[in-house]
Design goal:
Blueprint: H1 19-34, E1 64-70, H2 74-82, E2 93-99, H3 110-119, E3 125-133, H4 140-155, E4 161-166, E5 179-184, H5 196-199, H6 223-247, H7 274-278, H8 283-293, H9 297-307, H10 314-363
Antiparallel strand pairs: 1-3, 2-4, 3-5, 4-5
């Protein structure tokens, strides 16, 4: 089968590659317009609050994302979050545990996710994942206890799960960056023992013991209902987080799942750059972001307004368009080269198959006179 590489994802703002030409264009605009070496501050949709200068933060970072993993990715992702296999050398694993596994996977939970990859329906999701930022103020045991309480409250005994806590160094300030990955199966435990090949089959409502475990994927909800369910889930995490820290007497570390606008804060949110993009920042960029975070909201907002870019400026647009055109040209060249290589490889396979078939026909006495 011919392998075609899709272009759409490459130009998505969620793709870190997208920011390479964008940042280059913004730098060009700063240098041409401000006439001095400007620091770049990337700001977009996010929910990160700035601490007060000379004081503890009044609001901790909120990050809670929900992702789905397709069939074929469950086993590899389970290895990634539990730091097994080729990920053993990462050195940032704090804790990992599993729960609600069927009898055939209780001794080796990895078998559950491998079975999901093998037996889940075509085009189905093997897992749903919560990625959650954890407070630095808690020690490792407390962070584990907090996540365990949230998982118990949300999943109960209904879904098989694996969760792990990582604590790598933060890309900007170099401090701790504790966060949790919670993988859960969409299949609902109903108490019926099923073998791996049956567990992931289509659910049989009339005879449940003949089909697979029922799947709770939310497809019966409308888009607005799915959005409301996600907002409610994010709110429940904030409530669990704040209640836990309040019980420990930890102040100034509360989180809020709402956007800054919904909270009545007149400030642009900082974009969550992620590991790959933050790794490309220069020392000057990191310093500028850290200095901006240390400013009070009023001073920070006024400075942000001064350094915002006018996207209608013709000079800026010209530089941006040129950077994007150069990037697209390089990408298209790589795409065409990959496509030509795929076509050549497929042609070789087809030619070998044709020769082999003709050889078999001749050996069997067919094909003479063709």
């Amino acid at each position: 089968m011919l392998s075609i590489r899709y272009l759409s994802a490459a130009f998505s703002p969620r793709n870190p590659i997208f920011y390479v030409p964008v940042i280059a264009a913004l730098r060009l605009y700063c240098q041409q317009t401000l006439q001095h070496k400007a620091h770049l501050y990337v700001s977009a949709c996010g929910e990160k609050r700035a601490p007060l200068r000379g004081a503890k933060p009044i609001m901790a970072t909120y990050h809670f994302s929900v992702k789905f993993g397709a069939k074929g990715r469950g086993g590899a992702h389970a290895d990634y979050i539990t730091r097994e296999g080729k990920y053993q050398g990462r050195g940032d694993l704090i804790h990992a545990e599993h729960g609600n596994m069927p009898a055939w996977a209780q001794d080796e939970p990895r078998h559950f996710w491998q079975a999901a990859d093998q037996f889940e329906r075509k085009n189905g999701s093997a897992y749903r994942e919560f990625e959650i930022a954890l407070p630095r103020e808690l020690n490792r045991e407390q962070q584990t206890d907090l996540i365990r309480r949230f998982v118990r409250h949300e999943l109960g005994e209904r879904h098989a799960y694996t969760f792990a806590i990582h604590n790598p160094a933060a890309g900007i300030d170099g401090g701790e960056q504790p966060h949790a990955h919670v993988m859960m199966s969409l299949r609902v435990n109903d108490g019926i023992e099923r073998a791996p090949d049956q567990y992931f089959k289509r659910f049989n409502a009339k005879y449940p013991e003949r089909g697979g475990a029922q799947k709770d994927s939310g497809h019966n909800l409308t888009l607005s209902e799915q959005r409301e369910a996600l907002v409610d889930l994010r709110a429940r995490w904030a409530e669990t987080h704040n209640r836990y820290l309040d019980a420990l007497g930890i102040e100034n570390s509360r989180i809020d799942h709402r956007s800054l606008a919904e909270q009545g804060i007149d400030r642009q949110p900082e974009y969550h750059l992620g590991f790959e993009v933050s790794g490309r920042l220069t020392v000057e960029d990191r310093t500028a972001i850290k200095q901006l975070r240390e400013q009070p909201d009023t001073e920070r907002y006024s400075q942000e307004k001064m350094t915002y870019f006018d996207f209608h400026d013709e000079k800026w647009l010209a530089g941006y368009r040129q950077a994007m055109a150069d990037y697209r040209e390089r990408f298209e060249q790589r795409f065409i080269a990959d496509l030509k290589r795929d076509i050549a490889e497929q042609k070789q396979v087809t030619d070998r198959h044709f020769v082999r078939e003709k050889t078999i026909e001749r050996e069997r006495g067919f094909g003479y006179g063709d």
